[in-house]
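Entry 14. Structure prediction run on the chain below.
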Amino acid sequence: MAVRKHPTKGPGWWQIRISHGRNGKEETFPYEGTELEALAYEAELRGIPQESAHQRLKDIIGRFLDWYTIEKAARTVDEAGKTLPKVIAALNNQYINLLRQSDYNRYKAKRLADGVTKRTINAELSYLRSLLNFASDGLKLQIGELPKLYTKKQTLPPPKTPLTPDELARLLNELDGDKRTIVTLYTYCALRRTEALQLKRKSVDLEAGLIHVTGKGNKHRIVPIIGQDLLEQLIEVCRDKKNDDYLFINKRTGEPYQDLKKGLKLAAERAGITKPVWNHLMRHSGATAAIQAGVGLRSLQAMLGHSDIRMTEVYTHMSADLLKIEASKMAELHKTASGMSGTKKTEKSSKISKLKKRINNS
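Output returned:
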């Protein structure tokens, strides 16, 4: 920070440091006044517009979100609105022209210590980067340094471990109502999160047993309603719904659900599932189970809405990994059984030896 309390003078005195590059001589200027006045004076010395020296992060978040609402999807704006106040508070609502990498490094270290993943930290700091870029490009304010994000290699997600058919069944048994129907659509029909949560009455053909889905890239596909249980659930959900009505409405907000992450996590805990569980994993798990059940790749590709068969082939590897895990359980069982058998053989052999000694002694 270029403005610090003066090391020798009393309260109200500040020392302003102005650097002239790596090889240039640093100048220091004493200043008496408030911290804000000292910052303004520093801005004047540096040739920075006066307004920038008075702007803290909280001062521009409202204008940023107004602009963001026009530029981005509602879900992205909502997430930014929830995330940015927490990031700003952690950065002590710093002046925007004084932000440095050291501030961000402390933020990263604190979040990592709290158990937050690097992917999540990147997402949080990306919102801050957008805010600062808006301040610079949109408001023409002087900003400090932009936060450096973790590299792609540093933020690779952990390998996906789909749920087994038994785990899926246990999870579904812990859900009811709309949430059970939505998760069944994820798993049985391999619908994406938004495809299931924003499903409308007109997209469900109960007589034909089909769901008309508009997915990524506005691509249309037809998915069969799999299982009598799901069909009965959809019949109940569709009752009294008009064509343009959403099937699933969050009673708390009166709007379609955004996701079921919290509900899935609680259901998984009740079902005794220790794996991380989230919305999209249900689709992965359903697709993996379909491969295990013998569903052909081309049929599964059509259900999933993949434009490239290679995307669908990933599930053959996931299925193989899952089978290896299950096979290891079988191997452990046989190993235990073998050990028990070996113990019984030893006991039997010992009894026979003792019996032979008695016979010989007699």
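Residues 7 and 334 are 74 Å apart (CA to CA).
Filed with the rest of this week's runs.
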